[in-house]
Amino acid sequence: MTGPTEMQIWSSLPVPAILIDEYEKIAEMNPAAEGFFNNSAKWLTGQPIWDRLAVDAPLEESLQRAREHGTPLFVNDVDVGTGARPPLVCNLQFAPMQGREGWMIMLISPRELAGRMTQSHSVKSAAKSAIGMAEMLAHEIKNPLAGITGAAQLLSMSLPKGDLEFTDLIVAETRRIVKLLEQVEQFGNLSPPEQRPVNIHDVLDRARRSALLGFGGHMKIIEDYDPSLPMALGDPDQLLQVVLNLIKNASEAADPKTGGTIRLHTFYEHSFRLRRADGSGQTLPLQIEIIDDGPGLPEDIKGDIFDPFVSGKENGTGLGLALVSKIISDHGGWISVDSVPGRTLFRISLPRAPRPAAIEETE
Ligand SMILES: Nc1ncnc2c1ncn2[C@@H]1O[C@H](COP(=O)(O)OP(=O)(O)OP(=O)(O)O)[C@@H](O)[C@H]1O
Ligand SMILES: [Mg+2]
Q1: How far is the CA of 241 from the centre of ligand 1 (A)?
Q2: How many CA atoms, within 13 angstroms, populate the side-chain half-sphere of residue 84?
Q3: Does the pTM of the predicted model rise above 0.70?
Q4: Ligand at shortest distance from the CA of 304
Q5: Strand ranges (DSSP E) for 123-213?
Q6: How far apart are CA 68 and CA 30, in angstroms?
Q7: Minimum-distance ligand to the CA of 324?
Q8: Contact between 235 and 190 (Cβ < 8 Å)
C-alpha cells in the first residue's frame, strides 16, 4: 500500500488551511476552509486574502517580518470575520511555505466556545410578553404607591422625631419601586427608532461626558476611535441610551474605590454581514466596542444577561441590557458580549447610513 498523497492529507486536515501567495492572494484552500468561508475554493482562489477575511488585529507588519525571515507567526484570540457570519474568536498560525518564496500557509483554529462565551442576541418573544405583563402591572401599581408616599409624608408631620426613620423608610422604598416601574414602562414607551444618519462618535462623546459627571466619576474612559468611520443609520437618542447603559454597567462592575478603565473603541469591518434566519442579509460594518477591565460577568447569569429582570446586583432591576438588546434589535443591528475576569467586551454592530451621493458605489 502506498502512503497517502499530499492532496489527501491537505483535504483531510480538520482545520481551515489556506495557502497565500506572495501577493497576499488566496492560492489554494482545503475543504475545511471552504466550510469556514461558506464559499468554494474555486470562487475564492485568486482573491486578496484580506478582502475575504477580516481580522481584528494589525497583522501586516508582523506578517511581513515572518515572511522576510522565513519564521512562523502565531496570533491568538483575534476576531476573524468572513462576511458569512459574525466574527469568531480564533487562533491563527502562519508558516512560510517551503520551496515557494513569499508564500505562507495559514491555519485558522476557532477557539472552542466552551469556557468562554460569545453570545449574541435578539429579543425573544417570551421576554417580550414578560415585559408586557410587567408594564401593565407597573401602570396599576404606580397610583396606589403615590397614595402611600403621600400618606407617609402626612404621617411624618405628626410623629415624634425618633420615629421619623420609619416614615422615611416608607418614602425611600416606595421611590425605589416607582423608579423600577418607570424603567419597566420605558420598554412600553420605546417607540420604533427614528433612523437617520448618526455620527457614532458624537453619541459616544455625549455618553462619555455625562458618565464622567455622574455614575462613572470613578472611571477612566479612553476614546479609541476610527476617525474615518462613516455615519451609522440609527436613532441618536436611543443609541445614547444604549451606550449609557453599557458604560453604567461597566462602572458599576468596577471597584468603587480604585475605579477602572473603559475603552470606547470604534472601527469599520467591511465584511460583517448578518445572515438572518429568514435568509435575508445585511451588512453591519460599523463596530462599537465598550470594553472594561472589571471582574467580568457573574458565572451564574452569564447566559441570560440580556433577558429582563436578570441581575447580579442587589439593587439591579435587570432591565438595562434587556433595553439595550431591544433597541439594537429594533435597529436591525447585532450585539454580542465576550467576558472573562479582567476584560468584558460588548460589541454593537450597526448598518451604515446610505451614501448621500447619487452614484451608488457597488460593493
Ligand atoms: N460590564 C459588566 N461587567 C460585569 N458584569 C456585568 C457587566 N455588564 C452587565 N453585567 C452583569 O449583568 C447584569 C445585568 O445587567 P443589566 O444592565 O441588564 O441589569 P442591572 O445593571 O443589574 O440593572 P439596571 O441596569 O436596571 O440598573 C448585571 O447585574 C451584572 O451582574
Ligand atoms: Mg445595568
Answers
A1: 14
A2: 12
A3: no
A4: 1
A5: 196-198
A6: 25
A7: 1
A8: no
pLDDT tens track of the chain, all 363 residues? 578 888 888 888 888 999 999 999 999 999 989 988 888 999 999 999 988 888 877 777 788 888 888 888 888 777 888 876 667 778 889 999 888 888 999 999 877 543 333 444 445 555 666 667 777 888 888 888 989 999 999 999 998 988 899 999 999 999 888 888 888 887 777 888 999 999 999 999 999 999 999 999 999 999 999 999 999 999 999 999 999 999 999 999 999 999 999 999 999 988 777 766 555 667 899 999 999 999 999 999 988 898 888 999 988 889 899 899 989 988 988 888 999 999 999 999 999 998 866 545 544
- Map residue 178 onto helix, strand or coil: helix
| CA gap 202, 240 in Å, rounded | 9
Q: How far is CA 177 from CA 145, 155, 205, 208, 314, in A?
A: 8, 20, 31, 28, 14
Please give the backbone phi and psi of residue 251, each rounded to the nearest 5 degrees, phi first: -70, -35
C-alpha cell at 136: 401593565
Measuring from atom 27 of ligand 1, which residue has the nearest CA? 316
The answer to whether the CB of 313 is under 6 A from ligand 1 is yes
